[in-house]
Write a structure and sequence with these properties.
alpha/beta; TIM Barrel
Amino acid sequence: MNTKNLFKRQSIYHGLATLCLAFVISNSYGQEGPAASLKETFKDDFLIGTAPNGRQLSGNNEAEQQLIISQFNAVTPENLMKSQSLQPEWGRYEFDQVDRFIAYASEHNMKVNGHTLIWHSQLPRFMRHMEDIDSVRQFFEGHIKTVAGRYDGKVDSWDVVNEALNEDGTLRNSVFLRALGDDYIVEAFKLAQEASPQSKLYYNDYNIEQPKKRAGALRIVKKIQEAGVRIDGVGIQGHWHLGRVPMEYIEQSIQAFAALGVDVMFTELDISVLPNAAGGNTAEISQTSGYSERLNPYPDGLPDSVQQALAQDYEDLFRLFLTYRDNVSRVTFWGAHDGQTWLNNWPIRRRTNYPLLFDRNLAPKPAFYRVIATKSDE
């Protein structure tokens, strides 16, 4: 399908969306919720997810909880299931917060995506300088078996391996690659398949819509499949920048992964509206920059022109997602509202970013209504 044709009636869509927006924009978020629900709007198309943290599920902010419950039917724990949180000391696991998270999701009929079993970052302190092959393998096997086994059937899916690729599509020089060799990803999926047979298994990464990195991800999927091991899907993270969402590459990637018989998820979606201090389009959390006012241009609010540009990017994305609804099984925003987003502090701390569909007051933004309008325009 030609992406240009998909969006050639953009001005008409914009007008229709504006009419919808004028009708409902006066409704701010409160006890009744906004005028529409993302999860209800797209219930026949794909899951709509968010990434709550432990504080958000504590019950201390009723409006925030109501936002999450009313808008989303899938949740990915932002940090709770990363290995440094789950296994802070060798062999000692702390499951209480994750157990509460899963119970919360079950109570509110939300699918849980377990994030993540194997990742080179946010490792326990004891792993940070470990190079001994036997010790790395013991951690690798033990962590997957223990965590995936405990939550088999309680999580809908696992990000089995996260961010294993360099930008050129080669394997990242992680502790797991150095100690276990380039078959470690296949081995991780095999262990997860054995420990958690009732859960779907995904590979998750950023920039894998880009051709070189996409090729690396396709090689990973094929290698797992050729080994006779199960892989159910690929998560494209979707950390993009205003006005530079790579629509053509995204479409090509959906087609390429679907051709291998795996589902496609957009797993960590946000669109930064601030100057890109990191350079390129990376989500590598180790890359940080110093603060400057020039790189934080909207501390007191987002200009309407930028709001509308953000709304247009989200509208275009969701039109594409709907075109490929048979292949896209979940769209997860990396955060519920602008006050929570990690992009307020990365790659520069203390910035004010506006990358999501709800603002800091939990009110729906123009982008929310434009996304909702994509369904009524079909």
